[in-house]
Amino acid sequence: MHVIENAVAGKRYVSSSTRRVPVYNPATGEQSAELPLSTMAELNAAVENAVKAQVAWGNTPPMKRARVMFKFKALLDQYAHDIAREISREHGKVHDDALGEVARGIDCVDFACGIPQLLKGEFSRNVGPSIDSYSDRQPLGVVAGITPFNFPAMVPMWMYPAAIACGNAFILKPSERDPSASMLAWNLFMEAGLPEGILNIVHGDKEMVDGILDHPDIKAVSFVGSTPIAEYVYQRGTQAGKRMQALGGAKNHMVIMPDADLDQAADALMGAGYGSAGERCMAISVAVPVGKDTADALVAKLKPRVESLKIGPATDKDAEMGPVVTKMHRDKILGYIDSGVEEGAKLVVDGRGFKLQGYEEGYYVGGTLFDNVEPDMKIYKEEIFGPVLSVVRRDSFQDAVDLIHGHEYANGTAIFTRDGDAAREFADKIEVGMVGINVPIPVPVAYHSFGGWKRSLFGDHSIYGPEGVHFYTRLKTVTTRWPAGIKGGAEFSFPSVK
Question: Which of 187, 223, 168 lies closest to 76, judged by CA?
């Protein structure tokens, strides 16, 4: 059985921990690897080494750090398909979806290549008599990232390229469910010339998370996961005096106005609702058609599309959707579907009981569509993180807006319309962090920043882009005045008070 290693101080090694967990291939249900859950002593050793390595790296000119990033980016381009296959093997998403994830991660490396420009400070001459002032952004030291299973390559790349380009050393704790993509990326970063000890990967579970949050030499932590854990991570980290960035869950709504192109809207909902088996923090899980006619027509267009979803393993090039990540998660999703039926929602397409010939042990859930969902139902209130789309009908634009404002999550939202006035009003007034107008998944490009509002984000900084640079650096402002020096010429008289 393949045993997944840690990567510390430029070397890979098998943890000495006696606690181990299996890593599965969700498409087949078979165990593919074993993952040791690292000890606190191993974390301490990684941080100690990172502290020492960071000093020289932090003093390395940003242009030289950028050259390493350029080489890393070129290697990621070269081996993108290999990373995608690692993602598919442990997460289950189809190859094209996994490849798209890698591409969005590479975008963040692209952005980090511009770090010399991004770190430039400000200068003001003569803020007072012969007094100048300048500001500088300096690295924090050792920082850490705790990342989720749903994007095992992309989300870590939201973090460590920017953090490292800024001059920090980085400790990464990937999800224990699909750790191999990060290990391959680590290999490529080392090949690109990254100094030993600057990127370290230490595997673990909650014990490791707590160790990272409590460690006095880790100055900042980035986290992506569910809201309850994000809140816990944020509270524990801030209590320990750390800078924290904790991204939580989502219940993303897409409003469909009566004037929208319904074919376009239905296609968008299919990709945004069922892509990656709904295991995306930016998945559209709630469709909000405005008006009965719009709702009836939308559901009529969605039903055959959901029923004809091509579900299969990543090895099937025609597959549009793969399995969910674990058997436990599959059972949880099935429980949500049961709950929706019990609470009175109309089950238009039932994904329960889906079996794929030859892959009967895989963790598959068929595409599921609910209509007539109400805000007090469990399937509406909670993040399902599976291929379940809920249609919540509303009578007016304002009713749709009020519905969105009433939810605790505010990660992303979208509106489909031809009406510029409605679109502008929606974008301007909606209390959600990321907004799409005729764009179903409004994830910003790498040179903007990603982050929700309300209980979808804990902390003052969003992730990657300019906000990422600000998070992984601290501002120092220097004010200078120099007394008259030797340029005034030599003085031969005896010094005295004048």
Answer: 187
Q: Output the domain CATH number for residue 308.
A: 3.40.309.10
How far apart are the C-alpha atoms of 221 and 453, rounded to whole Å? Answer: 19
What's the rounded Cα separation, in Å, for the pair 167 and 383? 36
Contact yes or no for 468/445 (Cβ under 8 A): no
Q: Is residue 156 part of a domain?
A: yes
Please report the pLDDT score of residue 488 as a whole number.
Answer: 64
Catalytic residue among 108, 113, 166, 281: 281
Full residue range of the structural domain in which residue 340 is found? 252-437
Q: What is the pLDDT of residues 11-38, one digit of tens each?
A: 999 999 999 999 999 999 999 999 999 9
- The reply to whether 400 and 293 lie within a common domain is yes
Is there a domain that residue 412 lies in? Answer: yes
Give the integer Cα–Cα distance in Å for 162 and 320. Answer: 32
210 and 285 together in one domain: no
When divided into structural domains, the chain yields a total of 2
pLDDT at 492: 66
- The answer to whether 281 is a known catalytic residue is yes
Tokens of 490: 């030599």
- Please indicate, yes or no, if residue 450 is contained in any of the structural domains: no
Q: Which residues of the chain have pLDDT under 50?
A: 497-498
Estimate the share of the chain in helix, then strand, then coil, as percent rounded to the nearest 5.
40, 25, 40
